[in-house]
Amino acid sequence: MAAEKSWVRLVTAQTPTNIAVIKYWGKRDETLILPINDSLSVTLDPNHLCTTTTVAVSPAFHQDRMWLNGKEISLAGDRFQNCLREIRKRANDVEEEEKGIKIAKKDWENLHVHIASYNNFPTAAGLASSAAGLACLVFSLAKLMNLKEDQAQLSAIARQGSGSACRSLHGGFVKWIMGNNDDGSDSFAVQVTDEKHWDDLVILIAVVSSRQKETSSTSGMRESVETSLLLKHRAQEIVPKRMIQMEEAIKNKDFPSFARLACADSNQFHATCLDTTPPIFYMNDTSHKIISIVEKWNRAETTPQVAYTFDAGPNAVLIARDRKTASLLLRRMLFHFPPGADVDLNSYVLGDKSILQDAGIKDMEDVKSLPSPPEIKDVNSNQKYAGDVSYFICTRPGQGPIVLSDESQALLNPETGLPK
Amino acid sequence: MAAEKSWVRLVTAQTPTNIAVIKYWGKRDETLILPINDSLSVTLDPNHLCTTTTVAVSPAFHQDRMWLNGKEISLAGDRFQNCLREIRKRANDVEEEEKGIKIAKKDWENLHVHIASYNNFPTAAGLASSAAGLACLVFSLAKLMNLKEDQAQLSAIARQGSGSACRSLHGGFVKWIMGNNDDGSDSFAVQVTDEKHWDDLVILIAVVSSRQKETSSTSGMRESVETSLLLKHRAQEIVPKRMIQMEEAIKNKDFPSFARLACADSNQFHATCLDTTPPIFYMNDTSHKIISIVEKWNRAETTPQVAYTFDAGPNAVLIARDRKTASLLLRRMLFHFPPGADVDLNSYVLGDKSILQDAGIKDMEDVKSLPSPPEIKDVNSNQKYAGDVSYFICTRPGQGPIVLSDESQALLNPETGLPK
């Protein structure tokens, strides 16, 4: 170990979040986080939704510490400890001559780390912040400790922090292979196609207002595995076939098949939640309305325009076949779900705001004068629900984790290793 | 046939509605209405929910005619025609000496009938009015035409009008055996136990306000059969086991098992609706809240107090283990769902209103001062939703169809055969 205690080694990385289109619901091993079926996700553009994490090591640190969004949090939980242990085990020699840093493989067990993490989106909004967060923790620590493992091997470590985190180790479309081994060694994520393969897709997320306290996905999936007779059938008989069909649809950029599978699989996941004792409701009336609007539009067209998928909460993730469709989708969404009083357009449509221009919407007057969508025939389906959506985020499929080499983007001070 | 054209023969009958605790969802034959699984229901007390039907025959009638709730409706639909045809086929000689009526078996094919039907509850409220209605049509026509068939055989005729109608031919707990024959001859309803066997049970129906137009159960179950992969598994693998367990629970008056099975089966039926393409949502946020309240209370007690079940709509049917429990349930319901403005208590709790006394509630002041239920610990679960329930009906398990011999209760004029 370097004799001087003055140095701090920093690595900063950025990792995307992801949304499953074939859902992960249910573990066969709670400790190792091994799933009961394969799953498949699209990685979201980190420009709009990502976690940035800086990890630091210094002989001056006396304990492992972590800060999330500026606030110190405990690292005592199993999820963090499992990841830290697995990464330390695989650490290698590190040498940075200009800083006088020299760490031998065996030194790592005595060195402590500081971790600072920041989400560029609301943590509690049900947008898979734990997936991006754990993936970023693993990816940045792996760089810090000079691991030789590839992304798939790192994904198997991230999996032990948060199941869906393993899918955030890659960009584009990503498959989490459930594996068969009891030790989890063959349960990891691989890329199906990169984000450039199908770059027509545009993703609109509706963050739905909710007063209900939701069941955590950890306890929810445990209860489903224990009590839902339908979940077992889904995992064993239905998902294996759907995985093959979904990979095929993605490789062929076959949007109608992609949309049908994504919608059916989201609905089936929520069906197994409802089949749980006691039943779990993640979607609410607003979620149902969004589905009805999309279904009605898709049926009015000759071929599906938009796919929807919902995770363990009421938020809708809407995937439009192209940018033109996305702008028509946004017009429909703003027609039915205008912002509530005192909410301005600029804070109502986030992410890639240029979609507003494509949709021909400059201000609230344009929102108010939006015509009823042509597929709506009866007055009953014409209703507006101001305030039922908190905000929209427009994004697209995006890249996997990257190291940010510009030290100005670090969340920890390079001298002290404490939050800036 | 009697030479004079002056006579009118009348029969008036009353038939209950029923609510399934093991659900019927999906037909294997659309024309004969043959189901994909057995189902089991409780018949509701006709004093609170029933259809009354008067049928009349006279040589003076020139065509078959029908009035529902005072308004003439068409009899052209397959459902009516199937029942009429099947009953006429089985008609027998009738003789009423004092009225000078003599109808030979062969005369029936040339005689026309008048039918007047009346529901003592709102037709469109999603309270199985078609089940009671078709059952009453079949039962009263069978009496008019002197059929020799027993209730099970009549139920097979009613089944061809509306599947669940077959279960309204008996009181108490009733099983609809799906049968195996292609001609439907072995698909009929039998009584499991009569209504006196388990007379502790009290049933509280919450009629839930809804702006959504619902998918009809006929088209809904067709779409589920065509698209839900989970429904097939439910019908083939899960329901057969549950039927045996449910019959056992009813025979033993084992409320905990009864409640667990009823709740799980209601939730699973709605899960298969959600697994349908496009998905069908019958329950709404209010339905979900009612489930949460009951589930929380059941968990707080050592054993289930109340079972819930929902048909193809948002209304909750709550089955309390006894009258004391029902009064505690009503207090909880009125705490969370007080009547909306301008609704008085007398039009908010219908059916057996004496439950209000048991619950210690005389007026709106008592409703306002109801304490928060003891099982509620966090403020979030303490919310009130005035107006989300339209009204409650308190009832109990009840008897099967009866003939009303008092002619003053007839809905048709005994001289003219036209509505009174």
Automatic annotation (TrEMBL), chains A, B:
Main EC class the enzyme belongs to: lyase
| Keyword annotations of the record | ATP-binding, Lipid biosynthesis, Lipid metabolism, Lyase, Nucleotide-binding, Peroxisome, Steroid biosynthesis, Steroid metabolism, Sterol biosynthesis, Sterol metabolism
Give Gene Ontology CC terms: cytosol; peroxisome
Q: What is its EC number?
A: 4.1.1.33
Q: Where in the cell is it found?
A: Peroxisome
Please write the reaction equations for the catalytic activity of this protein: (R)-5-diphosphomevalonate + ATP = isopentenyl diphosphate + ADP + phosphate + CO2
Domain Mvd1 C-terminal per the UniProt entry, residue ranges: 203-403
Q: Name the GO terms of the biological process aspect.
A: isopentenyl diphosphate biosynthetic process, mevalonate pathway; sterol biosynthetic process
Q: Does the keyword ATP-binding feature in the UniProt annotation? A: yes
Question: What InterPro entries would the database entry show?
Answer: GHMP_kinase_C_sf (IPR036554), Mev_decarb (IPR005935), Mev_diP_decarb (IPR029765), MVD-like_N (IPR053859), Mvd1_C (IPR041431), Ribosomal_Su5_D2-typ_SF (IPR020568), Ribsml_uS5_D2-typ_fold_subgr (IPR014721)
Q: Which Pfam families match?
A: MDD_C, MVD-like_N
SUPFAM superfamilies attached to this UniProt entry:
GHMP Kinase, C-terminal domain, Ribosomal protein S5 domain 2-like
Where does it primarily localize?
Answer: other
What are the Diphosphomevalonate decarboxylase-like N-terminal domain coordinates in residue numbering?
A: 16-189
Q: A single Gene Ontology molecular function, please?
A: ATP binding
Q: What does this protein do?
A: Performs the first committed step in the biosynthesis of isoprene-containing compounds such as sterols and terpenoids.
PANTHER family from the entry?
A: DIPHOSPHOMEVALONATE DECARBOXYLASE (PTHR10977:SF3)
Membership in a protein family: Belongs to the diphosphomevalonate decarboxylase family.
Q: What protein name is recorded for this chain?
A: Diphosphomevalonate decarboxylase
Could you tell me which species this protein originates from?
Answer: Chenopodium quinoa (Quinoa)
Task: Give the gene symbol.
Answer: LOC110732714
